[in-house]
C-alpha cells in the first residue's frame, strides 16, 4: 500500500489535487490544473509505451502455473497483470473475435483453451468490463483493455463473480528484465515531475 507523506493541501479554485509518487514510494498531494494533469498523463503514457509486449506461442508459466511475465494489451501495451497474479487453466471458452464494433458486422468468434485465471479483481493493473451479455443459458461479461477498449481479451461468468479469465491468445507479454530497462524519456515526459497515479 502507498503511504502518504504530510497533509494534503486544499486546492485553489480551478485546480485538482493529484497524488504524486516520491522516489521512496510515499505519496504527496500536488494542486494541478486540468491542463497540467492531462500533460502529465500523456507524458506517462509515452514512457510506458516504450516497452513493447510480444506474442508468445506458449503461455509463460512457472512451476506453480502462475504467469512469469507481465501480461499486456496487444494493441497499446498497457499492463493488465503483473507476474504471479494469475494461474494458467485449461478451459474451453468461446470468445468473439477482437474487432471494431460495427452494427452490421456479423459476430463470429473462436474457441480458446489457455486462460489466465484471476480470482481477485484487485490483482489487475488495468481491465475493462462490458455490460452483461446473455447467450442461451449463459450470462457473462466480456473483459477488455481499459485504456484502448480492445477486446474481448477475456470473460467473467455471472455465476462466478470472482473468476476472471484472460485468454493467452489475446494478450502480449514482456519479462521482468525488460521492465527493469528504463525507457528513453521524451522531451515531453522529462517536463513532467513525478508520476501521477491512475486507476488500475
Describe this structure in words.
The chain is mostly beta strands and 200 residues long. The chain folds into two domains: 3-48, no CATH class; 70-178, Metal Binding Protein, Guanine Nucleotide Exchange Factor, Chain A. It has helices spanning 34-48, 176-180, 187-190, and strands spanning 3-4, 16-21, 26-32, 70-73, 79-81, 87-96, 109-118, 128-129, 133-135, 138-144, 154-157, 164-167, 171-174. The strands form three sheets. Strands 6, 7, 8, 9, 10, 11 and 12 form a seven-stranded antiparallel sheet that branches. It is globular and about 50 Å long. This is Mss4-like protein. InterPro entries: Mss4, Mss4-like_sf, Mss4/transl-control_tumour. Pfam families: Mss4. Keywords: Guanine-nucleotide releasing factor, Protein transport, Transport.
Strands, helices and their partners?
Elements: E1 3-4, E2 16-21, E3 26-32, H1 34-48, E4 70-73, E5 79-81, E6 87-96, E7 109-118, E8 128-129, E9 133-135, E10 138-144, E11 154-157, E12 164-167, E13 171-174, H2 176-180, H3 187-190
Parallel strand pairs: 1-3
Antiparallel strand pairs: 2-3, 4-5, 4-13, 6-7, 7-12, 8-10, 9-10, 10-11, 11-12
Helix and strand composition category: mainly beta
CATH architectural label of the largest domain: Beta Complex
CATH structural class of the largest domain: Mainly Beta
Query: What are the secondary-structure elements, in order, as H or E?
Result: EEEHEEEEEEEEEEHH
Task: Tell me the count of domains.
Answer: 2
- Give the overall shape, derived from the CA principal axes: globular
Amino- and carboxy-terminal Cα gap: 13 Å
Mean pLDDT: 79
- What's the CATH H-level superfamily name of the largest domain? Metal Binding Protein, Guanine Nucleotide Exchange Factor, Chain A
The fold-level CATH name of the largest domain is Metal Binding Protein, Guanine Nucleotide Exchange Factor, Chain A
Strand content: 25-35%
Classify the helix fraction into a percent range: 10-25%
Amino acid at each position: 500500500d502507498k503511504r502518504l507523506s504530510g497533509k494534503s493541501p486544499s486546492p485553489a479554485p480551478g485546480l485538482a489535487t493529484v497524488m504524486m509518487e516520491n522516489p521512496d514510494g510515499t505519496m504527496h498531494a500536488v494542486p494541478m490544473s486540468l491542463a497540467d494533469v492531462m500533460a502529465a498523463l500523456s507524458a506517462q503514457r509515452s514512457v510506458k509505451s516504450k516497452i513493447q509486449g510480444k506474442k508468445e506461442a506458449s503461455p509463460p508459466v512457472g512451476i506453480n502455473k502462475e504467469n512469469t511475465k507481465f501480461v499486456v494489451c496487444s494493441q497499446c501495451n498497457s499492463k493488465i497483470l503483473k507476474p504471479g497474479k494469475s494461474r494458467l487453466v485449461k478451459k474451453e471458452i468461446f470468445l468473439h473475435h477482437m474487432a471494431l464494433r460495427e452494427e452490421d458486422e456479423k459476430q463470429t468468434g473462436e474457441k480458446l483453451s489457455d486462460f489466465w485465471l484471476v480470482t481477485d479483481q484487485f490483482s489487475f493493473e488495468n481491465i475493462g468490463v462490458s455490460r452483461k451479455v446473455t447467450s442461451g443459458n449463459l450470462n457473462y461479461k466480456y473483459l477488455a483493455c481499459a485504456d484502448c477498449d480492445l477486446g474481448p481479451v477475456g470473460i467473467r461468468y455471472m455465476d462466478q463473480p470472482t473468476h476472471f479469465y484472460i485468454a493467452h491468445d489475446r494478450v502480449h507479454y514482456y519479462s521482468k528484465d525488460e521492465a527493469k530497462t528504463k525507457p528513453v524519456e521524451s522531451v515531453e515526459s522529462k517536463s513532467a515531475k513525478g508520476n501521477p497515479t491512475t486507476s488500475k
